[in-house]
Amino acid sequence: xxxxxxxxxxxxxxxxxxxxxxxxxxxxxxxxxxxxxxxxxxxxxxxxxxxxxxxxxxxxxxxxxxxxxxxxxxxxxxxxxxxxxxxxxxxxxxxxxxxxxxxxxxxxxxxxxxxxxxxxxxxxxxxxxxxxxxxxxxxxxxxxxxxxxxxxxxxxxxxxxxxxxxxxxxxxxxxxxxxxxxxxxxxxxxxxxxxxxxxxxxxxxxxxxxxxxxxxxxxxxxxxxxxxxxxxxxxxxxxxxxxxxxxxxxxxxxxxxxxxxxxxxxxxxxxxxxxxxxxxxxxxxxxxxxxxxxxxxxxxxxxxxxxxxxxxxxxxxxxxxxxxxxxxxxxxxxxxxxxxxxxx
Length: 344
Description:
Blueprint: H1 2-18, E1 35-36, E2 39-40, E3 61-66, H2 75-80, E4 85-92, H3 104-114, E5 118-123, H4 129-143, E6 152-155, H5 159-162, H6 166-182, E7 187-192, H7 193-198, E8 210-215, E9 229-236, E10 245-250, E11 266-274, E12 277-284, E13 290-297, E14 300-307, E15 313-319, E16 324-330, E17 341-342
Parallel strand pairs: 3-4, 4-5, 5-6, 6-7, 7-8, 8-9
Antiparallel strand pairs: 1-2, 3-10, 9-10, 11-12, 12-15, 13-14, 13-16, 16-17
């Protein structure tokens, strides 16, 4: 009997380690570089020298990212304060209504009413591709009916996700982003500088159709890769919001209806090898699309090239070592316009 009791205690302890901590209401608690047991860490955050809490220093657009932690936001004051965009948390974890962000609908409705461009993010707790599928379904359920001007981001930071291998994290991100792109959304990944340098090492994160959002609370972003958004502080102050708020700079342009085409015709596809590169050329009936050439070796993505056509023509290339090369064409919100074509 004593051995059985000790074994049960051991199992309970193990489960307490493996299962994310939960609040009294059964909701999981965030634990990451910025949360401790579901509470935003603020006491350890101090302003960095040279930070302008309310300015876009490189000519980008000024924005904020928000969740239920900001309470009821006065979005009219936010807009009047000069904020150009917002990224709103829609939810966290798997596809359960109790995991919806309590302020998502209010925030999305207000931004829609006031014409504030916005995107969305989902805070991930996934530990497998099945979990990522549920999180994608969660985001899609909440996004239905809204018109986004910025990407849908997968927030990778929680200790639960950190317990996975880099390869599994890449597989989960690919599962989430592919599901969102197949539904017609532009996608991206949010992570801090350490994660971008050390955890997000899978080749999937080099996908040029994914936006990178880097959190580095400093006077400059020192990430060496390409990125389209930088979260530069968590202690910004904006009229209309009580307490601190994350501040961001968006370096790309929000897309508009004029940028989005719903069909494309691709003809005269030619493929050949030149200087140890596989080359693909094609004629496209619109310059307002994105052509994407992906190369694979043993079913693993090894390289990709992406370009917009110029005067109806596009030329793409990948390394000659690939055993499979696929051509895809999307519009500006990453909606596929043609079936995937295997060109090698």
